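User: I've been trying to design a sequence by hand for this structure and keep getting stuck. Would you show me what you'd pick, starting by listing the structure so we're on the same page?

Assistant: Good idea, let's start from the same input. This is the structure you sent:
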């Protein structure tokens, strides 16, 4: 590992501390190095707060060292005014002579302008250190800006024999059929805290009456996204309790919006591609990432439209014998791990 890679690697490590809190800003890590020693470091504060470069520079105790230092940052410093002043301007103002950047920010507001500003003001700039790793950290941010849709994670649990639910009696209590163990369930809540939204279909809500919140972890609840073409979900179910912003995709004209606080109706055409319409609306509402938790028909809709970026599949040790079959998925197995008695497979598209 080169010196530049060592410090950009630390930037990547720092950037992950902002997961789930910085959106719509990217997660960025930054270190200030003097004589091969880190003298300051920082990561992006929750949205509205300081960017990583500001936190790193402010953390340097002896500011006189900045004129002989190198600043490392995992993503190109911004050069435009937003909630905070431009970071590229602060670097120049601090008289830091050299900047090493992991990856260019191809958001149209930045898109190389930060690098150009630094060069125009006499900074030596190195770009493209651990570029792929830096892109991976901000996969949600890059997908949102480049593909004009949220980063989409498909998630389900299936039995050892390939079913996502057992056959239920009509009078059965409306609650989830647990396939995964308690540790996996806690991990799912951690994942929820990291993503911007969570989506479920009508049948899943009617069958399970889920809360779709973060109860077994610490963090923000995702925006709830619910499909309900003809408004069949009872209005006293958890998803309509008003505790979390909930977006309902429907084609049924209803006065429901006036009756429930924190519930937003979005009207779409269910005779056309529902996943594409969902992605368009969520992009317009600045939703950067989404977990699709089911059910089977909803998951298949995104798979069939090739609108997914990764799938996280739990395989439990239960055997149902019969039931609702898990979706068939083709892709590249990127990770395989065990959580107690469960197996987790992380799959990404081949392209």
């Amino acid at each position: 590992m080169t010196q530049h890679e060592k410090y950009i690697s630390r930037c990547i490590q720092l950037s992950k501390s902002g997961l789930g809190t910085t959106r719509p800003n990217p997660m960025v890590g930054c270190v200030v190095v003097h004589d091969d020693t880190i003298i300051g470091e920082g990561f992006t504060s929750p949205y509205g707060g300081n960017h990583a470069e500001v936190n790193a520079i402010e953390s340097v105790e002896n500011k006189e060292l900045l004129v002989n230092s190198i600043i490392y940052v995992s993503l190109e410093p911004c050069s435009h005014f937003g909630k905070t002043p431009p970071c590229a301007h602060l670097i120049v103002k601090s008289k830091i002579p050299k900047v090493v950047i992991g990856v260019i920010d191809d958001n149209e507001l930045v898109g190389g302008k930060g690098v150009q500003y630094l060069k125009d003001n006499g900074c030596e700039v190195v770009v493209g250190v651990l570029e792929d790793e830096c892109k991976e950290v901000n996969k949600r941010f890059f997908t949102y800006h480049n593909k004009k849709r949220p980063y989409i994670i498909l998630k389900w649990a299936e039995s050892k024999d390939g079913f996502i639910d057992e056959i239920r009696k009509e009078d059965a209590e409306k609650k989830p059929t647990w396939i995964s163990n308690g540790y996996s369930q806690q991990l799912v809540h951690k994942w929820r805290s990291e993503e911007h939204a969570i989506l479920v279909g009508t049948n899943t809500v009617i069958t399970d009456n889920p809360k779709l919140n973060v109860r077994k972890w610490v963090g923000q609840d995702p925006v709830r996204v619910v499909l309900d073409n003809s408004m069949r979900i009872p209005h006293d179910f958890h998803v309509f309790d008003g505790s979390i912003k909930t977006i309902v995709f429907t084609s049924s004209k209803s006065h429901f919006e006036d009756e429930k606080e924190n519930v937003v109706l979005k009207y779409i055409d269910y005779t056309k591609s529902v996943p594409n319409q969902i992605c368009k609306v969520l992009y317009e509402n600045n939703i950067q990432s989404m977990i699709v938790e089911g059910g089977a028909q909803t998951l298949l809709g995104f798979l069939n439209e090739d609108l997914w970026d990764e799938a996280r599949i739990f395989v439990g040790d239960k055997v149902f014998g019969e039931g609702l079959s898990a979706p068939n998925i083709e892709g590249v197995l990127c990770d395989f791990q065990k959580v107690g008695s469960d197996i987790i497979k992380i799959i990404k598209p081949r392209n």
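That's my pick for every position. To get oriented when you compare it with your attempt: The chain has a mean pLDDT of 92. The radius of gyration is 23 Å.
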